[in-house]
Design goal:
Blueprint (H helix, E strand, L loop, with lengths): L1 H11 L2 H19 L4 H9 L8 H26 L8 H12 L3 H34 L4 H17 L5 H14 L3 E2 L5 E2 L13 H19 L1 H8 L10 H9 L2 H15 L6 H15 L11 H25 L5 H12 L8 H4 L1 H32 L4 H20 L2 H19 L5 H23 L5 H4 L1 H33 L4
Antiparallel strand pairs: 1-2
Helix pairs in contact: 1-17, 2-3, 2-4, 2-17, 3-4, 3-9, 3-15, 4-5, 4-6, 4-14, 4-15, 4-17, 5-6, 5-14, 6-11, 6-12, 6-14, 6-17, 7-8, 7-20, 7-22, 8-20, 9-18, 9-19, 9-20, 12-13, 12-14, 13-14, 15-20, 18-19
């Protein structure tokens, strides 16, 4: 392991790759700093620029965006009281009050330090547990992989709180999209007489359309509210380094606990930074000697939030690299980068592409260091970037998305794909349909079909899925996930109905 890591470190340390990591981190921080832009949006915009790069350069750039994006959300959260990304929601609870109390520099400094330490701890989790999971999953055959993908999709759909049926339908729609074009037996499906559909839909324009287009349109709808919040914001910031070191010295256990929560939650398919954010904040409050200070500007709340959402980075890479199952939406896009470069994530990746795996480790470490330096040196500018009006931002981002989709194959049809799926995504978003299961269905659909066909070619009996212990376990977990989610949905509906009836009583 040491040999390939040193070899990867040598490649990542080259001036050109280091420059790409710096660019990625800067863009990620900027993307995270702008309310509503999100880490996912930043990754989608950068994605097309990796096509002409070698795998190490492309992955290093994306890792830089990933690390920077998760830490960037703290800027608008502290300065504006608006989370830059969904994974920094709880940062606002204590970061914004601290800034309102005249200490914005302290709040930003604590958040940046916690993000740095959270990333380092998550890299350690990735280094130690990634190969172990990969080694275990070497025993997986088509039956186990098929059942695992089904479980991942049901888990993601089940996390669509209060909308399980919609989540399952979204996942099924994502799988349906991947059936367009030729199948493995060269049979043409669902082309509707259009030659351009013979090769199916490209993942990139579909993902950008479904997620980015709908997100940007939603941002425009909220434009008036956000403008009202941004008025009169003071962006002058001074970082009190000595005070931050003292604060972090008293937060050792909180930092470790929150980072481990972020790493473990990140490793679960379909969870990500937002779930880790709330869990770690809740645990920090429960373990605190002064829980009454939470929500009023305590360092413990900022540390819990930022350490956990940054730790998701390393944790989310574990299932993506070891099993080929994306941990969350940004990881689904990262998996798309690897696939476009001819690399299939999964158990064999650690044997066939050890240098690339090492490059991911090294990029995460280097990206964390660059993130700290950039945040502390340029925090005043990032605070001003967070004030960019949505009416300026939205058309620029849409233009970049269209250019990126066209650059994939120099095909105008891909821009139409982006637009059509953008409208579909926006309508689904308006209808309350969660988009993450749909995206993961698109990403995992081809692999699910391939593994299912291979399993049935080896053994025509469907009972084999139930007679093999691991595949039966994953299918049982999938059923349990759906049942538990139905129970939660019923409970949510009952509580809402009870809350409406209370005033009448």
């Amino acid at each position: 392991m040491a040999d390939f890591f040193l070899q990867a470190l040598g490649q990542v340390s080259s001036p050109s790759v280091l420059a790409l990591i710096v660019i990625g981190v800067l863009f990620g921080i900027i993307g995270g700093s702008i309310p509503g832009f999100t880490v996912t949006m930043a990754i989608l915009v950068v994605f097309p620029f990796t096509f002409a790069m070698d795998p190490v350069s492309g992955v290093s750039l994306m890792v830089g965006v990933f690390v920077g994006g998760y830490s960037g959300g703290i800027v608008s959260g502290v300065m504006l009281g608006i989370p830059g990304t969904p994974s920094s929601i709880t940062t606002v609870y204590d970061g914004y009050p601290m800034a309102q109390n005249g200490e914005p520099g302290r709040a930003l400094g604590i958040g940046v330090a916690a993000s740095f330490l959270g990333t380092l701890i998550s890299v350690a989790v990735l280094v130690f547990f990634g190969p172990l999971i990969a080694g275990f999953s070497m025993n997986f055959r088509p039956w186990e992989i098929t059942a695992l993908i089904v479980f991942a999709l049901t888990l993601v759909a089940g996390l669509s709180s209060g909308a399980l049926i919609k989540g399952l339908l979204a996942a099924a729609l994502g799988l349906l999209i991947t059936t367009v074009g030729y199948d493995r037996n060269s049979n043409l499906r669902f082309d509707f007489g259009l030659p351009a559909l013979g090769s199916g839909f490209e993942i990139l324009p579909v993902m950008i359309g479904i997620f980015a287009f709908s997100q940007l349109m939603g941002n425009l709808e909220k434009l008036r509210d956000e403008q009202g919040k941004i008025k009169g914001v003071d962006t002058s910031v001074t970082i009190p380094y000595g005070r931050i070191l003292k604060d972090m010295g008293s937060q050792k256990l909180n930092t470790l606990r929150s980072s481990l929560i972020g790493s473990l939650v990140g490793a679960l398919p379909g969870t990500g930074g937002t779930v880790a954010n709330f869990i770690s904040y809740d645990q920090a409050k429960k373990f605190s000697k002064h829980p009454e200070t939470f929500g009023k500007g305590t360092p413990s709340g900022i540390v819990a939030s930022e350490a956990s959402n940054s730790a998701v980075a390393g944790g989310a890479f574990v299932p993506t690299l070891a099993l080929g199952i994306p941990g969350d939406l940004p990881m689904a896009i990262m998996m798309g980068v690897l696939i476009l470069h001819g690399i299939t994530p999964g158990p064999l990746m650690f044997e066939q592409n050890p240098v690339l795996v090492g490059a991911i480790y090294a990029s995460l470490l280097i990206g964390a260091v660059i993130m700290v330096l950039c945040q502390l040196l340029l925090v005043r500018w990032f605070a001003k970037i967070s004030l960019i009006p949505q009416e300026v931002l939205v058309p620029v981002v849409l233009m970049l998305c269209a250019i990126g989709s066209y650059a994939l194959n120099n095909n105008l049809f891909d821009i139409w794909v982006l637009f059509v799926f953008g409208v579909i995504g926006y309508l689904l978003w308006k209808a309350g349909v969660p988009l993450t299961p749909l995206i993961l269905g698109v990403v995992l659909g081809n692999n699910l079909e391939r593994q299912l066909f291979r399993a049935l070619e080896l053994d025509e009996s469907w009972m084999t899925f139930l007679t093999r212990p691991l595949s039966a376990l994953f299918l049982a977990l999938a059923v349990a996930s759906v049942i538990f989610s139905l129970y939660q949905d019923r409970k949510i509906q009952h509580n809402q109905l009870r809350a409406r009836n209370l005033p009448e009583q």
